[in-house]
Design goal:
CATH topology of the largest domain: Immunoglobulin-like
Mean pLDDT: 81
Strand order of the largest sheet: 1-8-7-3-4
Structural class: alpha+beta
CATH architecture of the largest domain: Sandwich
Shape: elongated
CATH class of the largest domain: Mainly Beta
Length: 171
């Protein structure tokens, strides 16, 4: 609700050509015509072209600014505000293609296959079986358990021939 009346938007798009910011009242040296504003993100520093109209400054975003994120607006080394920049809305488009449209789009690529799920996911199960083969881990697990059972039975009921001392027959 507070952003409704704020002059600064919560986020900007990287594709928009420019934006306007309210400059704080200048106290000290330097004219307001020399805004000297920089956009700083981590080690990246950009100096946009800028036009000052009283307390407003209009920044033209540089062409090389293509990384989304938070940029600090600095003037003479002092942080004025932080701006958030997002990708274009077209990147987040959630429209889906039909199988026929996808086949037309990838028709020139022999290594791409369009897969339809079919009834009850039968197409996906067939694709999974073709790609992964038969999973054998269940058989190996059962075989290991049978071997452990056989070893336990051999130890428990195996030949218990105990070496008995030989009696000496004295004649």
């Amino acid at each position: 609700m507070l952003s409704y009346r704020a002059e600064q938007l919560p986020a900007y798009r990287l594709t928009q050509p420019s934006l306007s910011l309210q400059l704080p009242a200048t106290t000290g040296t330097g004219s307001s015509e020399e805004a000297g504003i920089r956009l700083v993100k981590d080690s990246l520093t950009l100096i946009p072209s800028q036009r000052v109209f009283g307390q407003q400054v209009r920044l033209d975003l540089p062409q090389g600014m293509d990384t989304p994120g938070f940029y600090q607006v600095q003037q003479r080394g002092k942080v004025l505000t932080t701006l958030a920049f997002n990708q274009d809305k077209r990147e987040s488009e959630l429209a889906a293609y039909t199988a026929d449209e996808l086949r037309r789009l990838v028709s020139g690529r022999p290594n791409v296959t369009v897969l339809e799920s079919g009834e009850n996911g039968a197409g996906l199960a067939k694709f999974s079986a073709d790609q992964m083969g038969q999973p054998l881990w269940r058989y190996f697990l059962a075989f290991a358990l049978v071997c452990l059972l056989a070893e336990t039975l051999l130890i428990r009921f195996g030949n218990r021939a105990v070496a008995r001392p030989v009696e000496k027959v004295v004649a």
